[in-house]
Amino acid sequence: MKPSPSPPNTISSGLRRHARALIVQTGVLSVALFVGQMGAVAQTVPADLMLTDLNITGIDQPIAFAEPNDGSGRLFIVSRTGNIYIYRNGVVESPEFLNVPSSTGGEQGLLGIAFHPQFASNGRFYVQHTRPAGGANIGTFPDQLTVEYTANGPDPDVVPPATRRVIMTVGDLANNHNGGDIHFGPDGFLYISIGDGGPQNDPHGFAQCLWRKPADNNPASCASGTAPNYALLGKIMRIDVDGTTASAPAEMCGTATGATANYRIPVDNPHVGTSNTCDEIWHHGMRNPFRFSFDRSNGDMLVGDVGQGTWEEVSLIPAADGAQNLGWRTCEGRQLRGSVTVDSCNFGLLPILDYSHAAGRCSITGGYRFRGPIPQFNGMIVYADYCTREIFFGRPDGATASGWSATRWENPPGTPVRPASGPIGFGEDLAGNLYLAAQSDQVYRFSSATAGDNLFANGFE
Ligand SMILES: [Ca+2]
Ligand SMILES: [Ca+2]
User: Fold this and answer.
1) CATH number assigned to the domain comprising residue 179
2) How remote is the CA of residue 137 from the centroid of ligand 1, in Å?
3) What DSSP line would sit under 148-174, residue for residue?
4) How many angstroms is it from 196 CA to the middle of ligand 1?
5) Shortest-distance ligand to the CA of residue 130
6) Which of 78, 93, 268, 325 could form a disulfide with 8 if both were Cys (CB 3.0 to 4.6 A apart)?
7) Is residue 455 part of a domain?
């Protein structure tokens, strides 16, 4: 039977299973969730909150984590230099789950992983990575690719590379600002972040352009011109990977026009039905949305957008609230780009939290809204700075212009809690435990001996 585009708000049987699991978890956590929703004073940092080093060795630049809801107890850890590992029973297993050959210069590499909501039955998962050297690329630098693999077969701990299918291709012009995070939303659609292409100050104005655009150093020319045309840079995309499109129309910008696309456009995407707007786009106006996440309790999206030279920012976007413009390159944080005048930006969606490059800070990683088994910590937004290695906790305060404020994690007071090297990724397991990956191959877990953090140690199925 020929598949048809998924209607909005329809939940497949597999997703219903997933939804039931979430309801079970929500029920157990209901007291903590209620407290979290009370707002300003609910979230506190347990005095014994720790950044526990899992003493993992042999993973080169861990950057992303994911746990499929398949009962296997496997946590998957992505190495930026191209491998995906299985972590189970406290051990990194050998051989690796899969190698994805990738370019790794600058910020390129294997950057994210997402398991299909029905992975337990269909074996499908998705990665975002930079094409290895030697391929035919759209731009002057290797393309950013969204790729599917299938883990079915006699040994599901190893993936046949031949199951690879390219889903989406985005051209690039520099080795930085590749975004690269990838997650399924609670609606069952796949979301992918990509930066403005680089190198600095979005010279071509891709982030504010919703259409195919030449690299002409003219942000005002948001129109299809002489090929190659760039699109989808500086955006978060939303696509349906449960079907194909036989002949991609021009409004599908992540595949060649007229070719078979290995995805469909959700019918309620915000730019469907308007001309000269790429239909994959969910949000736009970002510089480098290097890491984003979904709040597992309510589906809100949290975007950490890396700033230029002055401000780093975190935006919180309500679930299903598409078509947001996060303001880059007009604004940086809650300010005009490069301005030190606080709250000088009145363009686009303002971030709930930002911080300046004072005191050596340089680049945001994260974050997540903590929903794991440490009840006092529930609802806290967690993010980190790559250069200073400081970790910040954000919470609603009902007082500042954004309604949110953040504090640096210190223990003892005055001494920041830091990973041993620059933080480059966060991730959750099925129980909501939060992990932090650091540049020089460390993996940490947020834990609290007294706050019941083993409550869901074996998952909630
Ligand atoms: Ca780039
Ligand atoms: Ca359109």
Assistant:
1) 2.120.10.30
2) 12
3) EEE--SS-TTS--GGG-EEEEEEEESS
4) 7
5) 1
6) 268
7) no
Contact 384, 355 (CB under 8 A): no
Distance from residue 299's CA to the centre of ligand 2 (Å)? 25
Domain range for 382:
13-447
* CA–centroid distance, residue 275 to ligand 2 (Å): 5
Distance 47 CA to ligand 2 centre (A): 51
Ligand closest to Cα of 323 equals: 2
Q: How many whole angstroms from 152 Cα to the centroid of ligand 1? A: 33
461 residues of the chain, pLDDT tens digit each: 333 333 333 333 333 333 323 333 333 333 333 333 333 345 788 899 999 999 999 999 999 999 999 999 999 999 999 999 999 999 999 999 999 999 999 999 999 999 999 999 999 999 999 999 998 999 999 999 999 999 988 889 999 999 999 999 999 999 999 999 999 999 999 999 999 999 999 999 999 999 999 999 999 999 998 889 999 999 999 999 999 999 999 999 999 999 999 999 999 999 999 999 999 999 999 999 999 999 999 999 999 999 999 999 999 999 989 999 999 999 999 999 999 999 999 999 999 999 999 999 999 999 899 999 999 999 999 999 999 999 999 999 988 999 999 999 999 999 999 999 999 999 999 999 999 999 999 999 999 988 765 444 443 32
Q: Quick check: is 325 in a domain?
A: yes
Total count of domains within the chain: 1
Ligand 2 (ion): residues with CB under 5 Å are 251, 271, 274, 277, 279
- Helices 13-28 & 30-37, crossing angle to 10 degrees? 80
Among all ligands shown, which has an atom nearest to the Cα of 280?
A: 2
Neighbours of 442 (CB within 10 A): 20
Determine the distance separating the centroid of ligand 2 and the alpha carbon of 241, expressed in angstroms: 19
Cβ neighbours of residue 319 closer than 8 Å, sequence gap 6 or more = 185, 186, 294, 295, 298, 299, 300, 301
**CA of 194, nearest ligand number:** 1
CA angle 300, 306, 308 (to 5 degrees): 145
